[in-house]
Write a structure and sequence with these properties.
Elements lengths: L28 E3 L2 E3 L6 E5 L6 E6 L3 H18 L4 H17 L1 H11 L4 H18 L2 H4 L4 E5 L2 E9 L2 E5 L9 H10 L3 E5 L6 H13 L6 E3 L4 H9 L3 E7 L2 H13 L3 E5 L4 E5 L5 H13 L9 E7 L6 H9 L19 H16 L3 E4 L18 E4 L6 H4 L6 E7 L2 H10 L2 E2 L1 E5 L3 H10 L4 E4 L15 E2 L12 H7 L1 E9 L19
Helix pairs in contact: 2-4, 2-7, 3-4, 3-7, 4-6, 10-11
Bound molecules: nicotinamide-adenine-dinucleotide.
Length: 522
């Protein structure tokens, strides 16, 4: 097995700096447990967001290569589906151990390609690792049910794998989101074709290497590359039975519609605009730290970033302190000691975020803290935006209606808790929301009435651990949230229920006449 690209095979050797990283070749794809160089002529350049140095070129796999990945996964399914759950569990234990051993190496790849700080990248790996750890409980998760439904008659259920399944991933969590799929899809007996984001596939390729080392048979996990063309191939390929998508609304709504029209199961987690309501009775210091961390961490490029602050009553007077704390954050290359946030993913993303800040100004909002134009001395060419706070925002403004996905916090003022709830409920997204209060009844009222899927009570980024599920709501999830990622619903997504009804009577049938009425089992 060759090493994953750009990075050494050994867990102790990986980049720890943005310096001198230049193109190290083209990223391979991964099929049949082998890294393979694509024969394509089309590549997508991948730049370090801190320097804009070219790091690697990501191939747009050819149709033949994509078909070969499907053939590999289809062949592997024939035997993988018949392995025992205990066997698959043992491989998962090894996979978990290997992720732990390669934790820093995975994080380094993320910092280099995605830009987030090394500490934050380690968290990205951890949140995915926890899904793999939960998948080790497959023997419990896959248990069926049994009931004696009538005299001498029982019905029991089995959870069976679907076949070849696919995952299409976004750029912002290069390890966590592939790990929402790899462990659960495979431990339930499916084989997988995963397309990482073309903007940072390095972590997924390291994970592929670890799958091979953990003992996954050839073809159980495959990694293919590309943009729209690869996505369309996945959506139209009959052998692929289910598609897990995480990303923005434009791609996700299209993928949900086309995949569903082709008869596939599709789960799709989409964009967000997460609000925090802050009440005057909250623990002010805890709130200030929490919102600054959750708005600007990862340069705001988290689907659960707290990007919108609803300030109830006199809490608006805390804005100068909030701005002080945001201003104190260190914006720097992700490998630098003490860096709090890195660059945004691309020059295009930087330009888009800056244009949304400009639109707020033009529409009458106030830029309380302006992060435009900031550049760390060591990295003159990166995609930098420092923390930005926009106040006096109203719901009609573009900075409110659009997901910004940058280090920008928009602030609105209301007078009462009721107004805060109405405002949040009127927003079309419903991924997550948080309330900051010391009052139990206030928090409980908020919990009951709010229409977002993941609620934090004094918790700024309430992403559930994998013994629960990721439960976005409204426009933040396609298909009305019928299918959610990881936890028991994740296992349901990747399995088909089969029910068996059996009769074992000790008595011989004596009547010679067939009963033609609908059996009632009474
Ligand atoms: P994106 O939608 O641009 O890309 C996601 C994937 O879709 C990529 O693999 C990309 O190649 C593919 N893609 C993009 N445009 C496409 C198109 N027009 N047709 C077919 N395929 C296409 O998302 P992104 O910029 O990589 O990620 C950021 C977005 O993801 C944000 O909106 C964020 O909120 C969302 N996100 C949501 C969650 C969640 O759980 N709700 C988690 C992480 C990210």
């Amino acid at each position: 097995l060759q090493a994953a690209p750009g990075l050494d095979t050994t867990a102790t050797s990986f980049p720890t700096t943005h310096d001198k990283i230049q193109q190290v070749g083209n990223s391979p794809y991964f099929v049949n447990n082998q890294f393979v160089q694509s024969s394509t002529t089309q590549f997508i350049d991948l730049h370090d967001p801190a320097t804009n140095n070219l790091i690697t070129r990501v191939p747009q796999n050819t149709d033949e290569e994509l078909k070969a990945a499907v053939a590999s996964a289809s062949k592997a399914f024939e035997t993988w589906r018949n392995t025992s759950v205990l066997h698959r569990q043992q491989i998962m234990f090894k996979f978990v151990a290997l992720i732990r051993e390669n934790w820093d190496r995975l994080a380094a790849s993320i910092t280099l390609e995605q830009g987030k700080t090394f500490a934050d990248a380690k968290g990205d790996v951890l949140r995915g690792l926890q899904v793999a750890e939960a998948a080790c409980g497959a023997s419990e998760l896959l248990k069926g049910e049994v009931l004696e439904v009538a005299k001498d008659m029982e019905t029991r259920t089995y959870r069976e794998p679907l076949g070849v399944v696919a995952a299409i991933c976004p750029f912002n969590f290069p390890a966590m989101i592939p790990l929402w799929s790899i462990p659960i899809a495979t431990v339930t007996g499916n084989t997988l074709i995963l397309k990482p984001s073309e903007r940072d596939p390095g972590a997924a390729l390291i994970l592929a290497e670890l799958c091979q080392k953990a003992g996954f048979p050839d073809g159980v996990v495959n990694i293919v590359h590309g943009a729209h063309r690869t996505v369309n191939f996945i959506l139209d390929e009959p052998a692929i039975k289910a598609v897990s998508f995480v990303g923005g609304n434009k791609a996700g709504e299209y993928i949900f519609a086309r995949g569903s029209a082709n008869g596939k199961r599709v789960q799709a987690n989409l964009g967000a605009k997460n609000h925090a309501a802050v009440l005057p009775d909250c623990n002010k210091n805890q709130f200030l730290n929490a919102v600054v961390g959750a708005a600007f961490g990862a340069a705001g490029q988290r689907c659960m970033a707290l990007s919108t602050l609803v300030m109830v009553g006199e809490t608006k007077e805390w804005l100068p302190e909030l701005a002080e704390r945001a201003k104190a954050l260190s914006v720097n290359g992700g490998f630098e000691e003490g860096a709090d946030l890195g660059p945004v993913i691309s020059p295009q993303s930087k330009a888009r975020v800056e244009s949304l800040i400009a639109s707020a100004e033009a529409e009458g909002a106030k830029i309380l803290l302006d992060g435009r134009g900031f550049t760390p001395a060591k990295y003159p060419n990166g995609n930098w935006i420092a923390p930005t706070i926009i106040t006096n925002v109203t719901p009609q403004m573009q900075c409110y209606t659009e997901e910004i996905f940058g280090p920008v916090l928009v602030c609105l003022n209301v007078d009462t808790l009721d107004e805060a709830i109405d405002l949040i409920n009127a927003n079309e997204y419903g991924n997550g929301t948080a309330i900051f209060t010391r009052s139990g009844p206030t928090a409980e009222t908020f919990r009951r009435r709010i229409e977002a899927g993941q609620i934090g009570i004094n918790v700024p980024i309430p992403v559930p651990l994998p013994m629960f599920s990721f439960t976005g709501n409204k426009k933040s999830i396609a298909g009305g949230g019928a299918s959610t990622f990881y936890g028991k619903p994740g296992v349901s997504f990747y399995t088909q229920l089969k029910t068996v009804t059996a009769m074992w009577s000790a008595e011989d049938a004596i009547s010679k006449k067939a009963d033609v009425s609908m059996p009632t089992h009474s």
